[in-house]
Amino acid sequence: MAIIKIKENYCKGCLLCIPVCRNKSLELSDTINVHGLHPVRFKEGAECDGCKKCAIMCPDVAIEIFN
Ligand code: SF4
Ligand code: SF4
After folding, report:
1. How far apart are CA 51 and CA 21, in angstroms?
2. Is the pLDDT of residue 1 over 90?
3. How confident is the model at residue 62, as a pLDDT?
4. Which of 23, 40, 44, 47 is the most exposed, fewest CB within 10 Å of its CB?
5. Could you tell me which CATH number the domain at 1-67 has?
6. What element of type H or E holds 56?
7. Rounded to the nearest 5 degrees, what angle is found at the Cα of 34, between the Cα atoms of 42 and 31?
8. Residue ranges of E strands in 19-67
9. Which residues line ligand 2 (CB under 6 A)?
10. pLDDT tens profile 9-48
11. Which residues, in sequence order, are CB contacts of 50 under 8 Å at separation 6+?
12. pLDDT band at 55 (very low <50, low <70, confident <90, very high)
């Protein structure tokens, strides 16, 4: 299991990262960030295998994966 860090204030809620996760581990948060946007969050109890697809997909470098 890898560790995922989402920098919510870098996230613009474009949703590009959500469909690339084969574990369906990402979702839109109901909170808002400093820009007034809903950032993506890691689902509670979800799994991350460290594939990094979400991080590669993100145009704003808002996701970091630690294996
Ligand atoms: S690294 Fe892979 S498994 Fe982990 S949240 Fe991102 S897309 Fe999903
Ligand atoms: S791809 Fe990046 S900016 Fe877009 S929703 Fe995902 S984390 Fe946020």
Report:
1. 9
2. no
3. 98
4. 44
5. 3.30.70.20
6. helix 53-57
7. 40
8. 26-28, 40-42, 63-66
9. 11-17, 39-40, 57-58, 60, 62-63
10. 999 999 999 999 999 999 999 999 999 999 999 999 999 9
11. 1, 2, 65, 66, 67
12. very high
Nearest ligand by distance to the CA of 28: 2
Cβ of 49 closer than 6 Å to ligand 1, yes or no, is yes
Ligand 2 atom closest to Cα of residue 28: 5
How remote is the CA of residue 4 from the centroid of ligand 2, in Å? 13
Ligand 2 atom with least separation from CA of 15: 5
- Token digits for 31? 């909170």
For 12, 22, 29, 47, 49, the CA distances from 9, given in Å and listed in that order, are 8, 24, 12, 23, 24
Token digits for 42? 């890691």
